[in-house]
Records
---
Amino acid sequence: MAEGGVVVLSGAGLSTDSGIPDYRGPSGSARRSTPMTYQTFTRDPIARRRYWARSHLGWRTIGQAAPNDGHRAVARLQEQGLLDGIITQNVDGLHQAAGARDVIELHGNLARITCLDCGALTPREEMGGRLDAVNPAFAGVAIAFNADGDAELADESLDGFTTVDCLDCGGMLKPDVVYFGETVPADRVQRSFELVESARTLLVLGSSLTVMSGRRFVLRAVKHGIRVAIVNRGVTRGEPYASLLIDAPLGIVLPHVAAVPTA
Ligand SMILES: [Zn+2]
């Protein structure tokens, strides 16, 4: 650690202390609904409307989440010049909220809305305000919500929810996040591979590496003889590749790492 050259790969487990559940990890309950796919979102107007109703509620929680000691420790390590890069699978923007810079957001960011027709990017707050304005009586109660901002909601609460379209072109709006069934943009993946290949250590934080989207970076590191260290609560699929594996809460371990950088 002390020699620097560390690239961080973070996952949902880093944000659980901020109140955002990790639906794959040990602390999260198994999600009750199938995650939204790109195909369903774009082709099924009813599913899309229900998605927006749930996501609108989910955002009330995720949008208010604050970074925790783990995010702050990563930002401090970067400030100390020990990090060559930060790659995150999270869409909550909490690395940046803690002061980190140049974060590669593999799966996008819920705080941005993109137009699928003209590509315009707008802030989530603006979308939230527009949805509130056209749904003055919407009083849906979220039962639970997931790390991707998709809240669980009784179907009857979704009746009558109205969505809005792009102000510029009237096109379809979607949170600027990568859905199931969607691929991460190639340039983002390429930049991430380049970072990993030039690292001394790949430090995996709070990712069970269940999906190939994250695991491929560990496999690439191993292929290039780069050390892999994992701090994660519970089982991780990266275990066979790790030269250091710490199963402990990130909010407790990371501040120590950042304060006393040792190899
Ligand atoms: Zn548009």
---
Amino acid sequence: MNPKELEDRYELPVYPRRDIVLVRGKGARLYDDQGREYIDCASNVGVSNIGHGHEEVAKAIYDQYVTLGNCYGMFYNPVRARLAERLVALSPPRLKRVFFCNSGSEAVEGGLKFARASTGRGEIIAAMRGFHGKTLGALAATWGEEYQKPFMPMMPGLKHVPYNNFQKLSDAVSDETAAVILELVQGEGGVRVGDKAYFQQVRELCDQKRILLILDEVQTGFGRTGTLFACEQFVEPDILCVAKSLAGGVPMGAVLCSEAVKVPVKSHTSTFGGNPLACAAALASLEIIVRDGLSEKARVLGGYFLNELRAIKNQKIREVRGLGLMIGIELKEKAGPYVELLMERGVIVLLAGATVMRLLPPLVISREEIDIALSALREVLA
Ligand SMILES: Cc1ncc(COP(=O)(O)O)c(C=O)c1O
């Protein structure tokens, strides 16, 4: 049986599949089992910021595995120590400590738990159209019946308010509010960029009421929006959740915390959290992002990509929006068929809701590769 038949037969059918078998990747290109080449404008949903198949990360992973691949958090380890120091140094000044985990959902779980433990309060305010993952705690913060309904009842204490609307958020705050959790650019929710003024008001409110501000940068982190963390362009959080491209494609998440976060020993741990293998990959990947100026590249190339897309005169396009190399093209009709047509023309993009095409190319994509993607986009929309 071929890989499609095997996966369809043996795995739970939870992923809406595309009809290709990807076998290899290099830089911003992907290859299928028929030898066809694709321009990657998805990065495995924001994972491959440094591009596919980076030799430096591969070497770091190999070297670490033959040295010490696993080391539970009860023992000290030099690679974990170096990564903790490096990540805190690269983060906004308010953030002083880190907890390591293995995915975006887990980073959000950690953030929600730390907020409750640190404030002694139970209520969390999240935004409509927000996406924070699908484990039970994170799922309660994620917006949308489609995701929540099969798994009711949800964790209590979550309130959802309209995004980018300070008055509604402020009205929802009570004496029981522990935290507000928000994305700076809503990714799954349709690539919606929040206003800086809104986030500043939220920051002030949180300071006044001693509420912790959790920013979910699982998708916007590590150069994607033009700065290492998107929050550098908005406000500082008390808790910053990251994952996806942190370790160059090796599963890893992290929760960066201010001094307001206090949790008892043993209350929250993880077997694989901070394993030296992922830490070595993260150190190598961070080095590449900083040394090669990938955040700046995302800012410049993202600006180019956005301008070119906005210049397309096409009745089907409602709006083009984004920040850095996180771009949404909202259509006046369903976007699914165009995503398929693009794939046939060798360009892989994502959906973000029914009508939005989402582009998250590796930050190492070249201008020439962006031009190829633009030609295909113009062609399929015409
Ligand atoms: C903003 C945000 N938070 C959390 C998650 C969940 O991450 P994971 O799929 O690694 O659990 C995602 C995944 O797309 C995300 O975009």
